[in-house]
Every structure is written in structure tokens, then in C-alpha cells.
Amino acid sequence: MYAIDQVNFKTRTVLIRVDFNVPLNADLEVTDDTRIRAALPTIKKVLKDGGKVILMSHLGRPKNKEEKYSLKHLLAKVSDLLKTDVLFVEDCVGESSLSKTAGMAYGKVALLENLRYHAEEEAGDEFFAGQLAEHGDVYINDAFGTAHRKHASTAVIARFFPKDKYFGYLMEDEVSSIEKVLYGSQSPVTAIIGGAKVSSKIDVLKNLIDKVDHILIGGGMAYTFIRSMGGETGNSMVEEDRLDLAKAILEEAKAKGVQVHLPKDSVIADAFSNEANHKICASMDIPVAWMGLDIGPKAIEEYAEVIMNSKTVLWNGPMGVFEMENFKNGTLEVANALARATKSGTYSLVGGGDSVAAINLFGLSDQVSYVSTGGGAMLEFLEGKELPGITAIREA
Fold first, then answer.
1. 157 and 296: one domain?
2. Among candidates 165, 148, 134, 87, which has minimal Cα distance to 351?
3. Residue 1: is its pLDDT beyond 60?
4. Residues 241 and 92 in one domain
5. What pLDDT was estimated at residue 376?
6. In this predicted structure, what is the pLDDT of residue 184?
7. What b/e string do you get for 363-395 counting C-beta neighbours within 10 Å, with b at 16 or more?
8. Which of the four pLDDT bands, split at 50, 70 and 90, describes residue 151?
9. Same structural domain, 156 and 213
């Protein structure tokens, strides 16, 4: 049993690893509280039961305990969202911090200082993990975004709670959503894979070939595939050292009966700029000095049709440079098709930083089945890798 629904945390001290690695502005104020909000249901469950909550997280990549990376800057936002005063503890380990958390009343919340102020966190140091473990008698991991790291607070610490370790609601949702796509999906299954480089998605593509019926390719990586087939790609982004690999992926997919769809046409430009001259042309025949920056209308039509006829869809990576107004249409229309398909009963999972940014930008995040919060963790999960933060909870 890894979930918290069947557990009563009354008079328990619950140490929760959250992912509060949120962006701050120049005034050190939280500019996007999505990750904090995502952790609220788990925190509220413990408080409702009558337990006390000790929160631990990292923020940024501090080198020398720089003040701008202190979690004290998050205190007001966390207190506001939880509608209760949260106690800030100036260190995450040591006698002083332990006396503070031990002295708290049940029904209260404390936030420990940045875990990464200690090098032992990223080193996965067992002694440090043991020091953290002293804060609670129950451990919950609700930080999917760091589940792929073998850090002290995400993987090693679970050893100190052999009978009292659980997934939080967010972690449970993330894991079940991705596993549903990878192992329990309804056919036809479609993966929409975009982004700039084939090299960053090689392992994902190789793993998905055995699990999907269609792969829709977009973004800069499409032109490496098109060049590998003998297409003229002009000045488009192409990874010359990955041409053989791209060709091999296409051949393997064909051998396994998986249809890989490359954009028939592209929106091309004569410079990487929203103000550049742009036009539509066949993706296999892009003129010299022009570059593909989005999928074209024929590709959009084909991709939308495949999405609408799918029962399960995974989306990881944009179709073009959606941050620029003139090259956002492919990504927008794929998002719209995904929302329509979801409404018709398709299970849709969106993950990866840029895809999430796009679905949020277009205001469609509530019209798909699930939006993953963990970019790197989701990518490694899709690659078929074991995630230490998940394994640590599941191990007996």
C-alpha cells in the first residue's frame, strides 16, 4: 500500500518531500505557485486527520547558501494557500531544527530550509537522510519532479521508514497517469513528440515504439528525420550526427507496424524571428536559407485526424516555435484537437516543460485528462528508466 487515502495520520508527525522549486521575481516573490498548489491536497489530508506536517524541498541550485535560494521567501505564499501560519525552520537538520519541529502542536505546519544548502542532499548521503528522518515518524514523497534523482530526501530517506512510507496524492496521480499510458492504455495509442532535438528524445522514441500505434513528430526534430529520408531542409535545425539514428528509428517503427507521421508541410521563415518573412511549403523541399519553424496546414489536418481517432494520447513537446505569434498555430491546433478528443472520451496526458507551458498559454489545461508537473522525471519515466524516488516507496 503506497497511497495515503487509507491511512489515518492522527497524532502522527508527517515529513513530506514536496517540490517547491518555484520561480521567483527580482523581489523574491513567487511568480508561479502551480507546484505549491499541487501539494495542497496531501498536506490538507494530514492536517484534517489531526497530524502535523513538516515540509522539505529544494529551491534552485545554490552553491554557497545564497540568500536568494532560501525557502523563507515562499513562507507567505505557502501560509496564504494553506490559510494557516506556517513555521519556518532556519535549517533542515540539527538539534535546533529538531527542537522546533518536535515542539509543534498537531494540526500545524513547518517548512524546513532549502535541502540543497547541504551538499549531502544531492550526494544521496545516508547519514544526512537519517538526520532528516528524525523530523517525522511517517514519510510521504509528493515530489514527482525530483523522483528521477537519487537524492537523500527523495530516495535514501525512505529506508528509515520501512513501514510508514507513502506516495502523496500528486505523486500517486503522476505515476498512475504515466503508467496508464505506458502499460494500460486503450488502442489506438498516439504519441505526439516535439521539441528541438532528436537527441533529447531518442530513448523516449525507442521505448514508445513498442507501446504506441502512431507517432506524430513536430518541432525542430522533424527536420532531422526529413533530412534522413533525403529531404531538402534548407536552414532548418538538423542534427547531422543523428541522421543514421533517425533513419534507424523510422525503419524500426515500420518493422513493428507503428506509423510515424512527419509534417507534410511547414511554415518556413528566412530568419529565426517573428518579424521574418514566412510562407508555407512542403517539408521535403525547403529552400536554401529558409528554415522550418512550425508545422503547416496539411500537417495540422493530418495530425488532428489521428488524434481524434485515438483512444489514448501522450503529448511531449511543441510542434513549432509557439512563443512567436507567427509560428504558434501548429502547437495551438494540436492542443485544440487534444481537447476535442478528450471531450469525446480519449485519455490525454500532457507532459514536459514546453508542452505544459503551451497548454497553459492556450488556456486548455483543464480540457485534457492530466497535465504532468515533472519535466525531467516524466521524460525518464517515458524512456523506461527506473525512478529512484518511486522505487524507494515501493520497495518492501
1. no
2. 148
3. no
4. no
5. 81
6. 85
7. ebbebbbbbbbbbebbbbbbbeeebbbbebbee
8. very high
9. no
Q: Of 198-207, 350-359, 361-370, give the range with the top mean pLDDT.
A: 361-370
**Average pLDDT value for the chain:** 95
- Residue 147 located in a structural domain: yes
Q: Which of 114, 142, 172 is the last residue of a domain?
A: 172
Q: Name the residue with cell 529538531.
A: 98
Quote the domain boundaries for residue 189.
Answer: 185-382
Given 172, 202, 235, the domain boundary residue is: 172
- 179 is a domain residue: no
Residue 31 lies in a domain: yes
Question: Quick check: 384 pLDDT over 90?
Answer: no
Domains held by the chain: number: 2
Return the residue matching grid coordinates 518536535: 102
Are 115 and 85 contained in the same domain? yes
pLDDT of residue 2: 67
Vertex 27, ends 24 and 33: CA angle to 5°? 30
Residue 396 domain flag? no
- CATH number of the domain at 348, please: 3.40.50.1260
Note the pLDDT of residue 295: 98
What DSSP string describes 113-177?
--GGGSHHHHHT-HHHHHHHHTT-SEEEE--GGGTTS--IIIIIGGGG-SSSEEE-HHHHHHHHH
Q: How much of the chain, in percent, has pLDDT values that exceed 90?
A: 86
Looking at the structure, tell me whether residues 242 and 374 fall in a common domain: yes
Q: Give residue 200's pLDDT band: very low, low, confident or very high (50, 70, 90).
A: confident
Q: Single out the residue of 284, 159, 165 nearest to residue 231, CA to CA.
A: 284
Q: Looking at the annotation, which residues are catalytic? A: 35, 197, 353, 376
pLDDT at site 353: 66
In whole angstroms, what is the distance from residue 138 CA to residue 125 CA?
20
Cell 514508445: give the residue. 208
CB 313 within 8 A of CB 305: no
